[in-house]
Design a protein that fits this description.
This protein is mainly α. It has a single domain, classed as Rhodopsin 7-helix transmembrane proteins (Rhopdopsin 7-helix transmembrane proteins, Up-down Bundle), CATH 1.20.1070. The chain is 74% helix and 3% strand. The chain has ten helices and three strands; from the N terminus they run βααβαααβααααα. A three-stranded mixed beta sheet has the order 2-1-3. α3 packs antiparallel against α5 (138-164). Its main location: membrane. InterPro entries: GPCR_Rhodpsn, GPCR_Rhodpsn_7TM, Olfact_rcpt, Olfactory_Receptors. Putative odorant or sperm cell receptor.
């Protein structure tokens, strides 16, 4: 895929999260502390699910992949942001910007589809329990995993293809701390109305439909569970409530960013900061804190290593 011939911008300059040097240093320290605490926790979740034979159910298979995706997502923006906090000039090359944008939407799109798969898994387990082992077999789980990565790739490559055909002749200052569609498109030296419309359709409408579909599916599950007298009622409610919390955490900021016209608002940077840096790492942690089986497995794993 060739870059448009009229593109003369070779690099972009980030204006950053804030212009205050003291605030930058404070945010740098807070992010560093947060990552040193939460990031190992996500790796521990992945390791626990991989090593504990009691966590072989599809639910935990998908949770392990959620942790992996969120860790990957955290490495796309945060390391560069931390390095820029210590630099006077925050510069990224044109190709580097496109690469960051691609992986941001590739991993983000995959995570959104993973949450859809997890909702389907809970629906089958709770509403169609007799068919669960047949539907959610290992082969089906790996097929779902392949499909969500493929879906994330297609979603991201559409974004990149639309941007690569835009001419960039200056200015080259991005009013953000990372490369994302709304800010990059605004720097194109041509009318971008059609491209913005396509971007909103590709990202915004897709996000909104997934969000509403997920909420509807969990509403059906909640209605089914509340009318049930089974022993696992409380466990099912707890699991589904956790999934809904994660859905709100992920889709709430994404809907705010991508389902409206690309016009800058004062809170955009704050929402983007939490959406790309802080919140992703919390998703697996929130689930783990509400899941007794995973917590017990993590204790067993830590105890076994301590004894050894």
């Amino acid at each position: 895929m060739e870059i448009a011939n009229s593109t003369v911008v070779k690099e972009f300059i980030f204006l950053g999260l804030t212009q205050s040097r003291n605030t930058q240093l404070l945010v740098f320290v807070l992010i560093l502390i947060f990552y040193l605490i939460i990031l190992p926790g996500n790796f521990l979740i992945i390791l626990t699910i991989r090593l504990d034979p009691g966590l072989s159910a599809p639910l935990y298979f998908f949770l392990g992949n959620l942790a992996f995706i969120d860790v990957s997502y955290a490495f796309i923006v945060a390391p560069r942001m931390l390095a820029d906090f210590l630099s006077e000039k925050k510069v990224i090359s044109y190709k580097g910007c496109i690469t960051q944008l691609f992986f941001l939407h590739f991993v983000g799109g995959g995570e959104g589809l993973l949450l859809v798969v997890m909702a389907f898994d809970r629906y089958i387990a709770i509403c169609r329990p007799l068919h669960y082992s047949a539907v959610m077999n290992p082969r089906a789980c790996h097929t779902f995993l392949l499909a969500l990565w493929l879906g994330g790739f297609v979603h991201s490559i559409i974004q990149v293809a639309l941007i690569l055909h835009l001419p960039f002749c200056g200015p080259n200052q991005l009013d953000n701390f990372f490369c994302d569609v709304p800010q990059v498109i605004k720097l194109a030296c041509t009318d971008t109305f059609v491209v913005e419309l396509l971007m909103v359709f590709n990202s915004g409408l897709l996000i909104l439909l997934c969000f509403l579909g997920l909420l509807s599916s969990y509403a059906v599950i909640f209605c089914h569970v509340r009318g049930s007298s089974s022993e696992g009622k409380n466990k099912a409610l707890s699991t589904c409530t956790t999934h809904v919390i994660i859905i709100l955490i992920m889709f709430g900021p994404a809907i705010f960013i991508y389902t409206r016209p690309f016009r800058a608002l004062p809170v955009d940077k704050v929402v983007s900061f939490f959406h790309t840096v802080i919140l992703p790492l919390w998703n697996p942690v929130i689930y783990t804190l509400r899941n007794q089986e995973v917590k017990c497995a993590m204790r067993r794993l830590l105890r076994w290593h301590v004894v050894c």
